[in-house]
């Protein structure tokens, strides 16, 4: 599941049929009651920066989470959705144009960027309010822990103080909390049950950034 060429084939196949989104678990509607209140908790960060909250969706694929936040958030958001699959990024850019997607808040912005989620070049340290990881770490973990740990470290690097990393996964707390601790998240992790589908429970693990990391860019 972590193969770049495999995901390119999947997204290219879907793009040849239509430009609709694909979520292999948990769509925006499944997560709306979690994400919108979380964003509203960050109003002090927005006032401090005097600009929209910056949301980073790592490994977005053709998920509708970025679109959903863009359409439904009453607060101004700058949403950057990043994936290494060019077909996925092109499909979502096309969908935004074809569906004439408009934001709830006039100052919100939505962009889709081709890039490596384990090496966020060009993203300044301490510049992001909310990082989303829906299943991306799960995919990387199939090839070992190194790349998944790099993703977490990069997410924590770009988060501003008080910002949050949200991981969405079906991995149980015993395993995921241990992984996050080893990846550098420390003790500031909470988790919630968010949905059960086909007998599988999905969780949200929320890491609050409480320290500055070395390696600023």
Automatic annotation (TrEMBL):
One of its GO terms (cellular component) is mitochondrion. InterPro entries: Lys/N-term_MeTrsfase_sf, Methyltranfer_dom, SAM-dependent_MTases_sf. It holds the Pfam family Methyltransf_31. It catalyses: L-lysyl-[citrate synthase] + S-adenosyl-L-methionine = N(6)-methyl-L-lysyl-[citrate synthase] + S-adenosyl-L-homocysteine + H(+); N(6)-methyl-L-lysyl-[citrate synthase] + S-adenosyl-L-methionine = N(6),N(6)-dimethyl-L-lysyl-[citrate synthase] + S-adenosyl-L-homocysteine + H(+); N(6),N(6)-dimethyl-L-lysyl-[citrate synthase] + S-adenosyl-L-methionine = N(6),N(6),N(6)-trimethyl-L-lysyl-[citrate synthase] + S-adenosyl-L-homocysteine + H(+). It is found in: Mitochondrion. Keywords: Methyltransferase, Mitochondrion, S-adenosyl-L-methionine, Transferase, Transit peptide. One of its GO terms (molecular function) is S-adenosylmethionine-dependent methyltransferase activity. It comes from the Eukaryota. Residues 51-166 form the Methyltransferase domain. One of its GO terms (biological process) is methylation. Protein-lysine methyltransferase that selectively trimethylates citrate synthase (CS) in mitochondria. Seems to conduct trimethylation in a highly distributive manner rather than in a processive manner, and thus introduces a single methyl group per binding event. Belongs to the methyltransferase superfamily. This is Citrate synthase-lysine N-methyltransferase CSKMT, mitochondrial. It comes from Engystomops pustulosus (Tungara frog).
């Amino acid at each position: 599941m972590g193969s770049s060429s495999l995901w390119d084939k999947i997204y290219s196949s879907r793009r040849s049929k239509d430009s609709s989104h694909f979520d292999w678990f948990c769509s925006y509607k499944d997560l709306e009651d979690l994400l919108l209140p979380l964003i509203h908790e960050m109003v002090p960060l927005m006032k401090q920066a005097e600009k929209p909250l910056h949301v980073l969706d790592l490994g977005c694929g053709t998920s509708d989470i970025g679109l959903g936040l863009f359409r439904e958030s009453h607060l101004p958001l700058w949403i950057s959705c990043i994936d290494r699959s060019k077909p996925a990024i092109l499909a979502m850019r096309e969908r935004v144009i074809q569906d004439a997607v408009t934001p709830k808040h006039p100052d919100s912005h939505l962009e889709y960027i081709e890039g490596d989620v384990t090496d966020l070049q060009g993203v300044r340290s301490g510049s992001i309010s909310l990082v989303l990881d829906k299943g991306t770490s799960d995919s990387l973990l199939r090839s070992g822990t190194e790349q998944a740990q790099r993703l977490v470290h990069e997410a924590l690097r770009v988060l501003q103080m008080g910002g949050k990393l949200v991981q969405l996964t079906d991995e149980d707390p015993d395993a995921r909390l241990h992984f996050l601790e080893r990846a550098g998240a420390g003790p500031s992790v909470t988790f919630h049950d968010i949905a059960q589908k086909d007998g599988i429970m999905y969780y949200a693990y929320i890491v609050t950034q409480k320290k500055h990391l070395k390696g600023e860019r």
